[in-house]
UniProtKB/TrEMBL annotation:
Classification via Gene3D superfamilies: HAD superfamily/HAD-like (3.40.50.1000)
Cofactor(s) the protein requires to work: Mg(2+)
Superkingdom of origin organism: Bacteria
SUPFAM superfamilies for this protein: HAD-like (SSF56784)
MF annotations from Gene Ontology: metal ion binding; phosphatase activity
Organism: Desulfitobacterium metallireducens DSM 15288
NCBIfam families listed in its UniProt record: HAD-SF-IA-v1 (TIGR01549)
Keyword terms: Hydrolase, Magnesium, Metal-binding
Record protein name field: HAD family hydrolase
Signal peptide interval: none
GO-annotated biological processes: small molecule metabolic process
A Pfam family assignment: HAD_2
C-alpha cells in the first residue's frame, strides 16, 4: 500500500532535546533543529501528510507549534500531536492508534520516524506502521522492529524517495 503519512518524534528527532533546560521547549533560552531536518521536511511535506508526535510532558500541541515557529519549521507539519491531547503516552501503541484514527488512514499507510527504539519504533510497529529508527550513534545490537535505521536526516530523503521500489 502506498505510504501517505510520515510521523516524526519531536525530541532528538526533529528538535534537539537539551537536558539542561526544563519546562516547555518554546520557553528555553536556546532551541535547535536536528541537522538536515529542514531540507528533509521541505521535500517530505510536499509528498506526504507530515505529523509530529510527542509525549512532550511540558508542552501541548500549541506550545509545540510555537517552538517549531521559533526555528521556522512549523509550516511543514500538517498535524501536531502530544500525549496531553491523545490521552496516551508512548510506548502505549494506543498513542499511535489514536493518531491513525484522527488522521483517518490505515496503519500500513504510515511511517514512524523516531530516535527511541522502545517508545517510537516498537510501539508504532505494534500499531501496524512501518518504522525508521534515527540515531546518530552506532547501533551495537540488532533492532529487528526497525524497518530501516538512518544516522542522518539527509539519508531520510533518499530512503523515502525509494520506498517500495
Amino acid at each position: 500500500m502506498r505510504k501517505k503519512v510520515v510521523i516524526f518524534d519531536w525530541g532528538d528527532t526533529v528538535m534537539r532535546d537539551f537536558s539542561e533546560f526544563s519546562g516547555p521547549m518554546v520557553d528555553w533560552p536556546r532551541v535547535e533543529i536536528i541537522d538536515g531536518i529542514e531540507e528533509s521536511l521541505a521535500l517530505i511535506s510536499s509528498q506526504f501528510i507530515t505529523c509530529l508526535a510527542s509525549n512532550a510532558g511540558n508542552s501541548n500541541a500549541e506550545l509545540m507549534g510555537l517552538a517549531l515557529e521559533r526555528v521556522g519549521i512549523r509550516g511543514y507539519f500538517t498535524h501536531l500531536f502530544t500525549s496531553k491531547e491523545l490521552g496516551y503516552n508512548k510506548p502505549d501503541s494506543n498513542f499511535f492508534k489514536e493518531i491513525i484514527s484522527r488522521i483517518g488512514v490505515n496503519p500500513s499507510e504510515c511511517i514512524m520516524i523516531g530516535n527511541d527504539y522502545e517508545r517510537d519504533i516498537v510501539s508504532s510497529k505494534m500499531a501496524g506502521m512501518e518504522t525508521i529508527l534515527y540515531t546518530e550513534k552506532r547501533i551495537e545490537e540488532p533492532k529487528q522492529l526497525a524497518d530501516f535505521v538512518i544516522r542522518s536526516m539527509n539519508d531520510l530523503i533518499h530512503l523515502l524517495n525509494t520506498w517500495g521500489d
